Description:
This protein is α/β, with parallel strands linked by helices. The chain has nine helices and 20 strands. A hairpin with a 2-residue loop joins strand 17 and strand 18. The chain starts with a strand and ends in a 16-residue tail after the last helix. Mean pLDDT is 78; it is low at 1-27, 166-188 and 414-425.
Amino acid sequence: MTAKIFKIGGFWGLRALAVGYCLLAGAEAAELLEVRFGPGGETTRIVFDLDGATEYTISGDETGAGRLLVDFAALAVSAGDRNFKPGKGHILRFGFAAAQPSGARAVLEFRRSAKIDKVFMLEPGGGVAKHRLVIDLQSADKSEFLASLPQRYPDLAAVIEKATAEPALPNLVAPPSPTQKEVKALSADRRIVVIDAGHGGADPGAQGQSGTFEKTVTLAAALSLAETLKKSGRYEVVLIRDDDSTIKVETRDTHARKANADLFISLHANAIDEQAVRGASVYTLSEKGSARSATLAKAEGEFHAYGLDLEEWDHDVADILLDKAQDKTITASSNFAKGLIDKLSRKTPMLNRSHREADLRVLLAPDVPAVLLEMAFISNAKDEANLNSPAWRKRTMEAVAEAIDAYFDDPGLQRQAANRAGGAQ
């Protein structure tokens, strides 16, 4: 199946979002049953009753007080429907024109100008056997009508791209070229970095040979990284915990999403029975984790991604949009992981096959690039000593900060505009 996605009114992810799409159910054309109007003073509702689903697009022009055009890809209309009939409310008259090969165009001429407020398709249900395409109009001048017409995007990837794109900067007179130091200091948009110190409180995590608890070294590292990032002036830093408190694992990525995080880093210390094993490693989300992320987002009623409220969409389209969002996030996470490993390898021992994938709870946000950094093996005596060393900690967290700088300095990077959504385990 294919779907065409549109944007109306300049907003994404709102309940008032109007979308012009319908899934083409099959090769057979749907049949027009009736066109109904619900005039109500400053508003008019137009309802197309159909006996099946068909793909459609919406456009318009400036003729008279304005014309609304609805092109149905596969719709059978009677000869009588091709003659203009009186409308109601904002609609003076309407009729249908045949379109090749099996479609039809509805032409609705305005009595007085109005803008499109909402567009949605109601599928059969609740005792109603027909499909209903609903268009709500609201009184407005012709310029507002033209501005409310859907902007078309070629595919679902373009929707995600549009929703996450950097806003265009105003066309201002360019000041004298700043120095590189000034560029960093005057960054127009501070990125939000969320740092998660693993474990904490009643959950001590792993324990080293000398009795060091994982929760202690992860907090020390998180505070060190936060200090380094704050000094740069480029970031807004959010700590999941800044003391020895207990934070449920299933809420950590949710905190990041609520903070509109551009990047999420969870700090941990590894442990294994083989005490000779040492070195850092970086985890990103596995394919299995991607599937669980979608399941949990739906189950928790927090079905959002990159500013799009996916509950507003047909479930098939919503699933495709979520897949696109996850693909974008996983790619960004992997790109950061590669840069992080490169910086860390110059400052601290690394585990063989340093970049790994796993179905980890803290990595499951579908719209926040995220990594879990296993800083070292607390079960190895040398690594445990490093984890307790302020000098090693400072050196290693500075390497992490350098990787963050490099990630956000990538000219191809687009801002990950996170929105609140469900997490995963």
